[in-house]
Amino acid sequence: NVSGGGKEVKEVRVPIWSDKNGQDDLTWYHADKQSDGSYKVHVDTASHKGDAGTYSVHLYYMLNGKRTYITETKATVPQATESQVTGKLTNNGSYYSVRGKYDDIIIVNKKHGLSKDYNPGENPTAKAAFVRLRDDMINQGLNVGRSYSGFRSYDYQKTLYDNYVSRDGQAAADRYSARPGFSEHQTGLVFDLTDKSGNLLEDARASQWLKDNAHNYGFIVRFQAGKEASTGYMPEAWHIRYVGKEAKDIHDSGLSLEEYFGIEGGDYATSSKPAESKPATTGAINLPATGTYTFTGRASIKAEAKVSSPELAYYDKGMSVNYDKVLTADGHQWLSYMTASGARRYVDIAAAKAESKPASQPEVKPVAKPADQPSLPESGTYTFTGRASIKAEAKVSSPELAYYDKGMSVNYDKVLTADGRQWLSYLTASGVRRYVDIATVKATETKPEVKPVAKPVDKPSLPESGTYTFTGRASIKAEAKVSSPELAYYDKGMSVNYDKVLTADGRQWLSYMTTSGARRYVDIAAAKAEAKPETKPVAKPADKPSLPESGRYTFTGRASIKAEAKVSSPELAYYDKGMSVNYDKVLTADGRQWLSYMTASGARRYVDIAAAKAEAKPETKSVAKPADKPSLPESGRYTFTGRASIKAEAKVSSPELAYYDKGMSVNYDKVLTADGHTWLSYMTVSGARRYVDIA
């Protein structure tokens, strides 16, 4: 017991060393306070070279900022002998441990947590072994960086986990992130490696080297493919756990830590399981549990097996995927696979048998609907005369979840008019209400609109920083551009703390920094001076074809609808052969001829109809960089004279992650020449190295 003489004892420190070689293995331990007021410290002989014999133990406590000596003692450790692995867990109030062949092994998984107050810091023996391993990998030319993620306190893990839950939902976050008190990082025995770009290590050659050699340094690759049922986590090639001498035995067994010691693992005791827990047995397509699937039409890729989950990307007809799971969820049949970065993805391939609508692939590109409002009974069966969108809400702006094609039928229980359209409505087998857009109520615009976000017409007057409450849905983006993909959104009534207000691309934006250090932009209104989002209006009409400045155009083939007159702008929807549009402008931009019109919601759209006669190739980077290498100090602050790309590698071919614009500045710590260009380099707040192409 430790008493501070009536004053609060802030910390108890215990220096311990083996008498074998003086104090060459001296380690300062934090003692953990027990429920009875006493303090205990757990000593792993692996931290002292595995030495047997006599150990010196001193006791200090921190009081009023000073370290005060109390007493000392000796302890004897018998010569280690190999013992049988018992698998019997004990708990000392701070953590669970199991007796291994050579020493006690701390166990942390979703069934066995840590005390909130357990705060040992980085284990010095594990850290020294990690540095040797990392440096050996670097010296062998493997794609490994010097940055890493090691010890995390309970509070830090809570912040990290809460952010993941906020972003992806708890079911998804639990697959790759530990809840606070259940993270191995809190033991100080775990390290996450990165590659040379600062990203978590996924390089195939380096990952294989770790699997084959980590045990030689006392580590195991903790979460491996095929072990998710026992570990509770998806594979992580970068995550290694120090266990000391027994690492070789665990490696040679081919088992996970849980399997090796025969202890319980898997999911949390009370878990919110993700949707994929139910395997598909009655899906519309009869498929083996694993294999390769070739798509017969467009199919959405999602982060969750939910119809309402946002589309991340898609597979088109004729494309293939290697999948490792088939499941039924939310009334649909899904294929599932792991990405190279360890993220699980789900592809919606069919309506399940119990679903009241026929099997179809989801499609995010709405085409024209019937022009007249049919006269229909309040309930019944409807046969479609053309393609019709299925939505979660009776709103034109609601994302398309799937569609009915010509000749398909649906049993409906409601007919309604909303948002200027006529809708059929029905309940899915899972009890979710769906709406199908079948006609315009009156002869108005029939042009498709994917995401018409109703924003204020006038630019709000806002302070430079503060809290903003949204009056409607607003897109969150990585760039202040209309064409930038939507990462997430704020809904009506939600709020955000912002630190910047700016006008760009004809819109007003709020901007803020995420907890991971990434800047985000939220589109809140059209700028007062600009009624359309067009960024490169070129007045010169193209010669091919010859069109009046406004009128009605009938398409001779498929033509993309876009938010900007740019070839690189994402396709929002399309017109097919024989369809028509009323346009109010003809322009040439990016080497193409475009028709332009305003949607019913006031958004300007552009349709690519032909290659312009005078331009052979589009040019997307209008800001010319200096031809000569600027004379710059090795580190400092640089102000940009034009747009400059930020990349993960100093390569022209590396994808652009973000950019600096004219007048913006950056603090850099390195100048280098690579790939025929001059680059500035800096570290992000998350420890990732970035490169900026300046000349």
From TrEMBL:
Gene3D superfamilies: 2.60.40.3760, 3.30.1380.10, SH3 Domains. Residues 532-543 have a biased composition (Basic and acidic residues). One of its GO terms (biological process) is proteolysis. Residues 288-355, 379-444, 465-530, 548-615, 633-695 form the SH3b domain. Residues 355-379, 532-553 are annotated as: Disordered. SUPFAM superfamilies: Hedgehog/DD-peptidase. GO terms for molecular function: peptidase activity. InterPro entries: DD-CPase-like (IPR052179), GBS_Bsp-like (IPR013688), SH3-like_bac-type (IPR003646), VanY-like_core_dom (IPR003709), VanY/YodJ_core_dom (IPR058193), Zn_M74/Hedgehog-like (IPR009045). This is LD-carboxypeptidase LdcB/DacB. It comes from Streptococcus salivarius. The lineage of its organism: Bacteria, Bacillati, Bacillota, Bacilli, Lactobacillales.
